[in-house]
Design brief:
Elements: E1 2-3, H1 7-14, E2 17-20, E3 24-30, E4 44-48, H2 56-77, E5 82-88, H3 91-94, H4 97-112, H5 131-134
Parallel strand pairs: 1-4, 4-5
Antiparallel strand pairs: 2-3, 3-5
Helix pairs in contact: 2-4
Length: 136
């Protein structure tokens, strides 16, 4: 499993699609094909847990459970050339590990099929155009 390590990479992924799950929020973005071969490389994963989730012991335990779930199954289900960030939530701490793994795999596959909710420029969802706006 390749990792995201630079803040700039996390910021780019935050502008991508979001796939909410009970134990985490999966953010994903397709790396643009450019001059380098990195865009064609394996999927990269990043992990974050905010201080709202609890003290350092709790946050680290959530992060470790998410990392292991990705290592066991999520990385295999991920498309190459895509970046993912898992934002841990409190339920990831208590839910059975098998359920957490299946949620990670399901979220990664959903992100790969682009059935996730796109984000607007200011973080809000874009409304669908009405019949009048569509025109003839």
């Amino acid at each position: 499993m390749k990792r995201l390590k630079k803040r700039n990479d996390y910021v780019k992924v935050a502008r991508g699609a979001r796939t909410p799950r009970r134990g985490f929020l999966l953010q994903s973005i397709l790396r643009p094909a450019g001059m380098d071969e990195e865009a064609e490389a394996d999927a990269r994963f990043g992990f974050t847990v905010t201080k709202k989730m609890g003290n350092a012991v709790v946050r680290n335990r959530i992060r470790r459970r998410l990392k292991e779930a990705v290592r066991l199954a999520g990385a295999k289900a991920a498309d190459s050339g895509r970046d993912f960030v898992l934002v841990g939530r409190r339920p990831a701490l208590d839910m059975p590990f098998a359920d957490l793994v299946s949620e990670v795999v399901g979220a990664v596959r959903a992100a790969a099929s682009d059935k996730t909710r796109p984000r607007g420029g200011n973080g809000a969802l874009k409304p669908a155009p009405s019949e009048e706006e569509k025109g003839p």
